[in-house]
Amino acid sequence: MTPATWLPLRETVEGIRGGRISPVELVSEALDRHELEGRRLRAYRRVNGPGALKEARRVERAVEKGEELPPFSGIPISVKDLYGVDGFLTFAGSPRSLPSCWTRDGWLVNRFRSQGAVVMGKTHTVEFAYGALGVNPHWGTPRNPWDAQVHRIPGGSSSGAGVSLWEGSAMVALGTDTGGSIRIPASMTGGVGLRTTTGRWPTDGVVPLSSSLDVVGALTRSVEDAAYVFGAVDPRWGDPVAFLEELGRPGASRFRLGRPSAEVWEACESGVRNVLEQALEELVAAGWGLTSLEGDLIRRGEVVYLDMGLAGAECRAFLQEELDEWIPLLHPVVGDRIRRAPELGSAEYREALAERERIRGEAGELFRDVSVWVLPSTTFSPPPLEEVAEGQAYGTVNRAALRPTCSASVMDLPAITLPVGLDPHGMPVGLQLLGPRGSDEELLRVALMAERILGRSDRRLGVPSLLGESG
């Protein structure tokens, strides 16, 4: 039986408003799913059982009274343990809790809670979000549900987020994205992850990794759900139904895709590349254009993020200024890299900022002849945890994981990943779409049209093998 928490958001909210779905039963099922799967999947640092049921009962009373319900009424959500949340300690993946200033609702958490969402708990993150594989030696690494025999990485740094969606304990998973920390775990666990244009939504109340690059957002089970979230949360909209209807209005339904002649495509494992090529062929068969274009700007963006230490310098500065006592506690898999990052006032850091500004200034040229750019979301199948837990192997694979996603971050572009198939290991493959700066709505329109051609994750991928064992 399909869990109720796997239903589309819009359908679920309409069912709650119409009295056909009980928010208490919905949240109870979410807690039951965690009870069933949580020990194996390890998505959460802390689950909010009694508090979640209390919030669900409040929504149920509002339904009984005939009150008008906001867009997320009764919807269970998980929150990355980088966000401040009232009533929760924040560890940010570290071994000790942060000061009390990080125990108050961040901006995005407040947006969800004010619209009726039920916080199920706080999900695991890479320590201070500084890693793309999802590995956390302090708390344990969540398990990718697509392999029933081997503990494979879930992607990071929002490592528990995508796992919580498949667990069925949440319908929306709040994450953050600096170089790919929403898109990478979404891709590796078979979900949808949207990075909004940098600065579109405030990052207030979130422990920072990079003040230049951080964005807040969510992982969902479909593009339609991602659009629902955007329409409800974004201050320019505030009405998810109206936003979905706007995306569906008659207009462009065939788009021009630009495929960069960048090395990132060549770096794809053959099994991953074959899945991506098949998805692109289906879009072309539906009338979409696909053009190969020069990709030097994307390569330059990779260099800024991977080689010039921009994010590392800003993370190091934050820790030195705000949490200096935490630095000796950092696990070497994170701490060694942060200690090697340039100082904030160094010539290396200033050059990284200058090159980023040059690239940002040229980014608009990417879209003169195409609607969106297409890239892999990841170039390889998620490996077993034991192969990449630490040392040189960790560094090599971490860099490879960031390579397809970090350029969009450097250029402040909105980007989204959607699942398009399974590789030969039975692991999800994500296709990434990049839009012009500020084109979040149009990017969601393109992604929604692509999903309607290719199919949602449940049809495209099926059910994760680990969950299939437990029904």
Quick recap:
By secondary structure, the protein is an alpha/beta fold. The protein has helices spanning 9-17, 23-41, 49-64, 107-114, 159-167, 183-189, 223-233, 240-247, 263-266, 270-285, 296-307, 310-322, 332-340, 347-362, 385-388, 391-402, 406-410, 440-454, 457-460, 465-470, and strands at residues 44-47, 76-80, 118-123, 172-177, 192-195, 215-220, 256-260, 289-293, 372-376, 415-422, 428-434.
Structure description:
This protein has helices at 9-17, 23-41, 49-64, 107-114, 159-167, 183-189, 223-233, 240-247, 263-266, 270-285, 296-307, 310-322, 332-340, 347-362, 385-388, 391-402, 406-410, 440-454, 457-460, 465-470; strands spanning 44-47, 76-80, 118-123, 172-177, 192-195, 215-220, 256-260, 289-293, 372-376, 415-422, 428-434. With 471 residues, it is an alpha/beta fold. The protein has a single domain (4-470), classed as Alpha-Beta Complex (Amidase signature (AS) enzymes), CATH 3.90.1300. It has an eleven-stranded mixed sheet, sandwiched between helices. The longest helix is centred in the first third of the chain and has 19 residues, at 23-41. The chain is globular and about 60 Å long.
Fold topology:
Layout: H1 9-17, H2 23-41, E1 44-47, H3 49-64, E2 76-80, H4 107-114, E3 118-123, H5 159-167, E4 172-177, H6 183-189, E5 192-195, E6 215-220, H7 223-233, H8 240-247, E7 256-260, H9 263-266, H10 270-285, E8 289-293, H11 296-307, H12 310-322, H13 332-340, H14 347-362, E9 372-376, H15 385-388, H16 391-402, H17 406-410, E10 415-422, E11 428-434, H18 440-454, H19 457-460, H20 465-470
Parallel strand pairs: 2-3, 2-4, 7-8, 7-9
Antiparallel strand pairs: 1-3, 4-6, 5-6, 5-10, 9-11, 10-11
